Amino acid sequence: MQGSGTFAVEAVLTSTVPRDGKVLILINGAYGHRMVKICKTACIDFTSLEFPEDASPEVTPVAELLNADPAITHVAVVHCETTTGIVNPLQELGRMVRDKGRVFFVDAMSSFGAIPVNVADCRIDYLVSSSNKCVEGVPGFSYAIARREPFMKTKGLARSLSLDLYAQWEGLESNGQFRFTPPTHALLAFRQALRELEEEGGVPGRAARYRANYDILIQGMKRLGFQTYLDEAKQGYIITSFRYPNHPNFDFQVFYKQLNEKGYVIYPGKVSNADCFRIGTIGRIFEQDMKALLAAIRDTLDEMDITL
User: Nearest to residue 136, comparing CAs of 209, 235, 67?
Assistant: First the structure.
């Protein structure tokens, strides 16, 4: 599907939920809230169950809500919620959702290609990701991995012409062509990215590099005096939220600008209840890059006259 990862999320929600269907959205960050916005805009019936941003969705309250509301047909969750970097459990949720006779939809935008996921074992019906992120292609298209049995029942359900998932699949199956102008440059880059992923040892190989990047980052940031937002047991190795240091000289805009001038771009925070910034450990970066980033952060703290 042409477009960013959000296009695939919207394509699944608007193409697979029947008019009398209802989506339960599990929220513990900004991207769960984005699914809510999609459903509101597309007039898809939904309900949501919100958990703290530093906690994963729990199976028991989800099961209780499914028992209480038979109108719910689909359950949606974000795998790696990059608001904080938390990785949500899929196997427990997916098996329970399947046992309850519902469709399980996973947004794996920031995890696919680096965190091993057994789609069948986790009872996932739809999983979406994009051409960039952990596969390390370039932005330009996204994709859905669909279980055939529920997918084949979705013809005619789409609420959008360009995001019609079934029509897109049907067109690709019939003549190998996109229905509308294809993102040719991104497709060629993705082909090369898949080759490089295979050469690195597939998902386990890439996961090992990202984990090494993460370990170096965490150890170095702790030595510099920074604290993570999440407990280590809940933290994934994709992206990490760090709390602002409690120092009168710390100004995030100055910190961000000075790192940028040194050639390093970090993410502002998305956490709603704490002042944080985020650092990613994915992409074409290696251990020496993380060490160089840490040196730049140390120099920036010195320039800001901050000792933690």
Answer: 209
